[in-house]
Design goal:
19 helices, globular, mainly alpha, 356 residues, 72% helix
């Protein structure tokens, strides 16, 4: 457990001393950031029997040790099928899967956070749930979310086609990521009609390729089974808080028209999650979809000090408040969550092989 707290406090410390960066400097990556991303990738990638659903993923890898490549690619998530096939038959085993997911998460966070004015504050917001819980628990969705984070930056700065291609890669690891394809149409401030037409076609293709076979399974496994997640309400409310803060103070956020349109729509959609928690019989179903809106927290909270405070002292107080909020959230989860035992104690594979 100490490793989690050390890394979280380091992120918070860097967040407290960093200054808001202008857009021209947001692509620069310094040595502390590179080191932290290597640590995050290794923490996720070189863990052993740590994280939720660990043994379920081990079973997935083992099940492909006697199959061929064609069978692996025919599975519902062909990207993950290919990954587990090489993990099962290439000698790396489960470590191949976890290391790939760790690198994907580190790259996704680097692309997304370094495009924010306060990347360390964004990383602080990401650490408790996105990195520890999602990255080390829901491996497939963690990989998919990594591509979604990259896709959101691509959508802000590049073509819709490239965005759809990035999301398609993410959907190959978890088909539910294809739900983000239509977001491209909502993000367009101009030529929206034409964009909606061909994005609609892309969304239809994405449903046929990725979601068609999974839709019934999702409904059966989550909605009809009425699965519930005890922490779903807290996680959803944190995203709703970010969405509400953005919509309330939107004029104070320094964004171009495309960025403002994109994050406005994502915020509006996020406000529907609490309603869905009440209406739908399964909070787990809502929770799993709401995971893809976690970048909204990083985006909003990393910009909130500059949006609300005119001076450095007040900005640091807001930064400290955000850090404390996430630290308290993590403390509650790691000590009282029903499934937190899967993360404690943290086991680092190289050390396990050396001393055991």
């Amino acid at each position: 457990m100490a490793l989690y707290w050390i890394l979280l406090f380091l992120c918070g410390l860097f967040a407290l001393v960093e200054h808001s960066r202008p857009p021209a400097l947001r692509n620069m990556i310094d040595a502390p950031w590179i080191l932290m991303m290597v640590v995050v990738a290794c923490m996720i990638g070189l863990r052993w029997e740590t994280g939720g659903d660990w043994f379920a993923y081990v079973a997935m890898v083992d099940s492909l040790s006697w199959t061929n490549l064609e069978y692996a690619l025919s599975r519902p998530d062909p990207g993950f099928g290919l990954l587990t096939y090489f993990a099962a038959n290439g000698g790396g085993g489960m470590t191949t899967v976890t290391m790939f997911s760790g690198i994907a998460m580190a790259v996704g966070l680097t692309v997304f956070c370094r495009n924010q004015p306060r990347p360390w504050l964004a990383l602080t917001a990401a650490f408790p749930y996105m990195i520890v819980v999602l990255g080390m628990g829901y491996i497939r969705q963690g990989i998919a979310l990594s591509f979604i984070m990259i896709g959101l930056i691509v959508l802000q700065r590049s073509s819709v086609l490239r965005y759809v291609m990035v999301i398609a890669v993410g959907a190959a690891f978890h088909s539910s990521a294809a739900l983000f394809v239509p977001i491209a149409a909502l993000a367009q401030a101009r030529n929206r009609l034409w964009t909606m037409v061909w994005v609609g076609i892309s969304a239809g293709a994405a449903f046929f390729l990725f979601l068609r076979e999974q839709a019934d399974t999702f409904i059966t496994n989550y909605v009809e089974a009425e699965y519930n997640s005890t922490g779903a309400l807290v996680r959803v409310l944190m995203t709703v808080l970010a969405a509400g803060a953005f919509l309330l103070f939107r004029p104070r956020f320094q964004l171009d028209e495309r960025e403002r349109t994109l994050w406005t729509w994502l915020s509006v959609i996020a406000l529907a999650f609490p309603v869905l928690l009440v209406v739908l019989p399964s909070s787990t179903a809502v929770d799993r979809i709401a995971l893809y809106w976690l970048p909204l927290q990083l985006f909003v909270f990393s910009r909130l000090p500059d949006a609300l405070a005119p001076d450095i002292k007040t900005q640091r107080l807001i930064t400290l408040a955000i850090f404390i909020a996430y630290a308290v959230t993590f403390y509650v989860w790691i000590n009282f969550a029903d499934n937190a035992f899967g993360w404690v104690p943290y086991k680092f594979k190289p050390l396990m092989e050396t001393f055991y």
